[in-house]
Design goal:
Order of helices and strands: HEEHEEEHEHEHHEHHHHHHHHHHHHHH
Number of strands: 8
Number of helices: 20
Largest sheet: 6 strands, mixed
CATH architecture of the largest domain: 2-Layer Sandwich
CATH topology of the largest domain: Nucleotidyltransferase, domain 5
Structural class: alpha/beta
Strand content: 5-15%
CATH class of the largest domain: Alpha Beta
Number of domains: 3
Strand order of the largest sheet: 2-5-4-3-6-7
CATH superfamily of the largest domain: Ribonuclease H-like superfamily/Ribonuclease H
Radius of gyration: 25 Å
């Protein structure tokens, strides 16, 4: 963020946004109303602001429970995607339109589930990061850039609630009220910093990205898994996680509301063999129904029955370089390259006033440090980074400083 922009942001107190300009629209819950929205938004002009509300922490998965849109000439629309699960016609009507989304990678998967996929987008959260803003949430960005304050007290409510209370709907409508204005101001800020091309390349990459592949061994993301040391106990975590996931899906409930990660880890460490012993484990107390206790105990019994050769490995299967903490022992020269490259990237990011992880993905730096080109010149490193998926603007900035860091590592090898 430029000094001038900082000064402007501090000049006046923010103005609260309390009501949508044209009033609160009714929620679209039937085909006739949806058809009218499609017609109106197809006839609108300029970019379309898009947002989605999920029920994270309440329901299973990340589906959308409310979708908000706003476009010049069309106004604001609030759509219930549970009542109207197929929004492909709306997606088609907006196919040639730039979408303005805040933190696009969070909302695009649930929008794709109902048939809405942008071909072009402007991510105001990512734009804020590249512009160097310290706080990039929608509320702080709207306040600092436009001088409006947004109430955020409903951000973590259960959006699967029906009917949705009017204050929640008002909050949701205001989230897209000035999103296009924020986009325009950020575009001007990025242009002034000569970073607009960087941001546009990032936005294009997000829009073109394929759906992520299913995660391998998702149970390994259980919080507290680092406490588990034995493979049999890892099997217990896996069986409990899978049993919880199945039950959560059946109930359409957040897995954490069915059984906490802490309880899974505690049970895996204790490996109780009876219902009474399981009840003594934290997270399985007297409030847990006996039928559920038997379900969890059955998962532990399955873990005990896994043949030794089929127990999960202590570490997750991993492609690419080893953890950096092991580099000094495995390859001291690579460790020196990594230390130098990290320092160089951090210094460059600070000079450019953007987060280092947005300048270049840390994993790409690790990979090119572990397996560098035979001749680690700037052009060769640029080719390697491009092959790994770095964007053109990132390569142009990062490859030269990484090449210098590699050269220094060769001149001053580790002791």
């Amino acid at each position: 963020m430029t000094d001038a922009a900082e000064a402007i942001a501090l000049e006046t107190a923010p103005v609260p946004l309390l009501e949508p300009r044209e009033g609160l629209p009714p929620v679209v819950v039937d085909q006739a109303a949806l058809d009218a929205v499609v017609t109106a938004f197809a006839a609108g002009t300029g970019p379309v602001a898009v947002d989605a509300e999920r029920a994270s922490g309440y329901r299973y998965g990340q589906r959308a429970y409310l979708i908000q849109l706003r476009r010049a000439g069309a106004g604001t629309a609030l759509i219930d995607p549970i009542a109207c699960p197929d929004l492909s016609a709306l997606g088609a009507a907006l196919a040639d339109t730039e979408w303005v989304v805040h933190a696009a990678t969070q909302d695009l998967p649930c929008l794709a589930e109902v048939g809405m996929r942008p071909q072009r987008l402007f991510d105001t959260e990512l734009a804020g990061r590249i512009a160097g803003f310290a706080r990039v949430g929608l509320g702080p960005m709207t306040e600092h850039v436009l001088g409006y304050s947004l109430a955020k007290e409903h951000s973590a409510v259960d959006w699967s609630t029906r009917p949705l209370p009017e204050p929640w709907l008002r909050y949701a409508a205001l989230d897209v009220e000035v999103l296009v204005e924020l986009r325009d101001a950020l575009e001007a800020e990025l242009a002034g910093q000569q970073k607009l091309d960087w941001a546009l390349e990032e936005f294009a990459a997000i829009a073109a990205a394929p759906r992520p592949a299913p995660r391998v061994d998702p149970w390994r993301r259980t919080s507290g898994l680092h406490k588990i040391r034995r493979r049999r106990q890892l099997a217990a975590v896996r069986e409990l996680w899978q049993a919880r996931d199945k039950l959560a899906q059946e109930r359409d409930s957040s897995p954490g509301r069915v059984l906490s990660d802490a309880a899974i880890v505690a049970a895996a460490l204790a490996m109780p063999t009876t219902v009474a012993a399981l009840q003594a484990v934290q997270g399985f107390g007297p409030r847990v129904h006996r039928r559920q206790l038997e379900l969890w105990l059955a998962a532990l019994d399955r873990a005990r029955a896994v043949p030794e050769a089929q127990l999960p490995p202590a570490a997750a299967p991993h492609e690419g370089p080893p953890p950096p903490r092991a580099w000094a022992e495995k390859d001291p020269v690579a460790a020196a390259r990594l230390a130098g490259a990290r320092a160089a990237v951090t210094e460059l990011a600070e000079r450019l006033k953007l987060p280092a992880e947005n300048l270049i993905t840390p994993e790409l730096v690790r990979r090119v440090c572990w397996e560098p080109p035979a001749e680690p010149t700037a052009p060769a490193l640029a080719g390697a980074l491009r092959t790994l998926g770095a964007r053109r603007w990132q390569v142009e900035l990062v490859a030269p400083v990484v090449a210098e860091a590699f050269a220094a590592a060769l001149v001053e090898p580790p002791q």
